[in-house]
Specification:
This protein has about 400 residues and is α+β, with helices and mostly antiparallel strands. The chain has helices at about 85-110, 120-130, 145-150, 175-190, 200-220, 225-240, 285-300, 305, 370-385, 390, 400; strands spanning about 1-5, 15-20, 30, 35-40, 45-50, 55-60, 65, 70-75, 190-200, 245-250, 250-255, 260-265, 270, 275, 310-315, 335-340, 340-350, 350-365. Strand 17 (about 340-350) and strand 18 (about 350-365) form a beta hairpin.
């Protein structure tokens, strides 16, 4: 019996996927539920498991865009599992095909490069010009570089005489192409503006230094900066609900919940999984969820559902050393907060210059529905919460807030 394996639907809005990698070869025997391919959608990379055991026949190549529901391979379920390893027979064919290609390169190179040496007169002239004899195609016997060849050789300041100058071309993954498309869409369809501020991270440093070991020992996760920023954003969004809204045609949709998208770097590029109902999460809850989503993104296990939605985004470019940036809105959202690296800077405190750990923060927002008053007020509210976390984020009960 021949079983036709079709592309399953990864989500409602996805109509096609791309074959990123075949994990098996044409003619291999596969076991049921064995991962046979990795497929890219515009949201995530998913594994395609075999629906039955048997001999597989591939019907699509790596890089092909395949519609959801289309046949990508056939499995002969009546075939019995072969005994022994027949792989060596399959490997001989590619070796035979590659042999002629390896012989062609030396032939081409002998036509381009000199095989002889420079004559004494040519050596002197080339040395004065600063030109290597090996870079000259000699016209003398056996490719010998003659005096005339040396005289005619003209050095060029813009022409490289050594080093690699190769290039390569590879197809962007569907996920990467979708990210690029959405970034351009955000720039072209929103009235994006960015406002900046700075945060004195001293109070957060003090809290982390005092409680991070106890917090990690009890909860199994570190007390990072993301929990402080996330809870500060939740507080600010409650104060300025327009920032937690988005445009749908001629209407503005506002939400009474806060789903925070967090930008993380995965093996396939930027991914933006979502933390749901962060208004109900504690410091431990945020740190646990950030760790879970980051690991799933790193391992390529993020699902479409985990990437869908979100009412606001936080992007931490500081982990890569970014000092300042203008983050691009994640449509259809209306705001994104950019975190950056923390640098010790001289600042004025009560009329005196002190060295404090300072982070620059940036809020990019859609000016169509968020005015300057709301955007600046929102960012100031975030700054206030981060510079006074004990009172504004922990209600002056640090141990209770950290569940210690």
């Amino acid at each position: 019996m021949i079983l036709e394996m079709k592309v399953p639907s990864p989500g409602e809005s996805i109509t096609e996927v791309e074959i990123a990698t075949w994990l098996v070869q044409d003619g291999d025997y596969v076991e049921k539920d064995q991962a046979i391919a990795e497929v890219d959608s515009d949201k995530a990379t998913l594994e395609l498991p075999a629906e039955a055991s048997g001999i597989i026949t591939l019907k699509a190549e790596e890089g092909d865009a395949v519609a959801v529901g289309a046949v990508v391979c056939l499995i002969d379920t009546s075939a019995s599992k072969p005994e022994g390893d027949s792989a060596p027979e399959k490997e001989e064919a590619p070796k035979k095909e590659e042999a002629p290609k390896k012989e062609e390169k030396p032939a081409a190179e002998t036509k381009t490069y000199a095989t002889g040496t420079a004559s004494p007169a040519a050596k002197k002239i080339l040395a004065e010009k600063g030109i290597e004899a090996s870079s000259i195609s000699g016209t003398g016997k056996d490719g010998r570089v003659t005096k005339e060849d040396a005289v005619q050789a003209v050095p060029s300041m813009g022409t490289p005489t050594g080093g690699n100058r190769g290039s390569s071309r590879s197809r962007m993954s569907m996920l990467r192409r979708k990210v690029a498309e959405r970034l351009v869409e955000a720039k072209n369809t929103t009235a994006m503006l960015t406002t900046f501020n700075e945060v004195d991270m001293s109070p957060i440093f003090a809290l982390r230094n005092e409680y991070k070991e106890t917090f990690k020992n009890k909860h199994g996760v570190g007390l990072g900066f993301m929990s402080f920023f996330t809870l500060a954003v939740v507080r600010a969004l409650k104060m300025y609900p327009a920032v937690n809204s988005m445009i749908d045609g001629n209407e503005m949709i506002s939400y009474d919940f806060v789903d925070i998208s967090i930008a993380v770097s995965g093996p396939k590029g930027l991914m933006v999984p979502v933390m749901r109902n962060t208004e109900n999460l504690s410091f431990r809850g945020v740190e646990s969820e950030v760790k879970r989503l980051a690991i799933r993104a790193r391992d390529g296990q993020i699902t479409v559902d985990e990437m869908t939605g979100g009412t606001f985004t936080i992007s931490n470019g500081g982990v890569f050393g970014s000092m300042l940036s203008t983050p691009i809105i994640n449509p259809p959202q209306s705001g994104i907060l950019g975190m950056h690296n923390i640098v010790e800077r001289p600042v004025a405190v009560n009329g005196k210059v002190e060295i404090r750990p300072i982070m620059y923060v940036a809020l990019s927002y859609d000016h169509r529905i968020i005015d300057g008053k709301e955007s600046v007020g929102f960012l100031v509210a975030v700054k206030e919460a981060l510079e006074n976390p004990t009172e504004l984020l922990m209600n002056n009960e640090v141990k209770k807030a950290l569940e210690l």
